[in-house]
Amino acid sequence: MGRNRLISRGAPVETAALPGPLGVGFTYIAELPPELYQPGLLDFVEVTPEALCRERREGTTRSMVLVPEQVERARETCGTLPIVVHGVELSIGSAHSWNSAYLDMLDSFQMTWPFLWHSEHLGFQTIPGDGGTSLDIGVPLPLPATEEVVLLVANRSAALRRRYGVPFLLENPAHYLAKLPYDPAIGDEFELMKRITASGGCLQLLDLHNLYCNSVNHGFDAFEAIDRMNLDRVVEIHVAGGAWREGFWMDAHDGRVPKRVWELLEYTLPRGPNVCGVVFELLGENALRLGADAIAAEVDQARRMWRHCRCRSPSRTA
What we know:
By secondary structure, this protein is an alpha/beta fold. It has one domain (about 5-310): Divalent-metal-dependent TIM barrel enzymes (TIM Barrel), CATH 3.20.20. The chain contains 9 helices and 16 strands. Strand 11, helix 4 and strand 12 form a beta-alpha-beta unit. Helix 3 crosses helix 4 and helix 7 runs parallel beside helix 9 (about 290-310). The longest helix is centred in the middle third of the chain and has 18 residues, at about 145-165.
């Protein structure tokens, strides 16, 4: 695969070649009608390979095994559409260890179904258990903005780029914890992401609904946060829906995209020179309730915005 040099606001970083602008994508969900996954409606598909696996444990050894029938069904549904991978179980920020079973599975997945890039959440969801096991804490948690975290995640990100030979993206997480620990030289989650992507040579998946959640729950201006980001490192953007629950706006992936998130997308797209695609994200358990027509409408809205905003010069109107 060819190489190109991505110029960031920090030092230049060698990265696997980007595929160029793709357009608009959607999550692969097996329960939905295959007719949704057609060129013309979609330009690419985001696949979570864990959804095509079964997990096995033998003593303290965990493995994740792709189910051939499920992979074949997904490939048949997606047809000629290119795919990107969005993982949820790597736990890249766990201090004791990340999920090596996920990586073994992704090795097999790439040989079976090559992907243009892959992404993971900047966070952790496992802690050390007895006898060398890892305990799943049930929910992804954010990382403290410290130099130790920068070193850990940057080194792992660089290893992932070398292992798969395609761009690796980190997603900014939604979180519900106030006053996270930080080193004064880093300060907050936005500077943490900038430091990790610069040090590890990785790129960013900018989840605008996660950003919106955090701005609502923690009381900051999402547009000002975007102004602080290294948008030249953003390759993929997520939009999604959420809901209020116990006083928090939750990243539920359960419905249509809020108006403010569309406004954030409109603001961000002209400022991101390396954005290759926008994905409408939805969880499988919510897909049938929302329905194929509503999903197609959200994808159409993303496409209209993609076409409009990629031709605009950046000027803040919000």
